[in-house]
Amino acid sequence: MRKLMKRRIVLSVLCGLGIALPLVSQASAQPSVKSVPPPPPAVDKPAPYDGQMARLSEILGAVQYLRTICPASGSDEWRKSMNDLLAADTASEPQRKQRMTAAFNRGYRTFAAVHTSCTPAAIAAEEKYRNEGATLAQEIASRFGN
User: Fold this and answer.
1) Are 47 and 96 in contact, with CB atoms under 8 Å apart?
2) pLDDT for 83-96, tens place per residue?
3) pTM of the full structure
4) I need a surface site. Which of 37, 55, 116, 128 has the fewest CB within 10 A?
């Protein structure tokens, strides 16, 4: 009887090991699940005219500031022009929009640091930048426009 009991215990242990061993071997035979790295963030490809657009954005910012200290008709039109430009050219590209907005702000702040009141130099700078902006906008439109 003791022998029979020992056999049952041994068989139980062996059966238990027999069941456990394939599970262990199956677990070790399966490739470990590796986490797939997330795809890299979408990178906005620069347009061939991004440099010119950045310059135009800077000019729009400068003219916007100069028009606030030297009031002229349509002083808000420059900010509106910048918003229209951003909406048309960077609607689905947040990084490009951010770069162009930064250029606009840079132009605005640069002139805010230099000109604190309407002087003949501020009026001349506004006219010069307005002309440069118009020329640049025309060049971009004629070269890259559809």
Assistant:
1) yes
2) 887 787 777 788 88
3) 0.64
4) 37
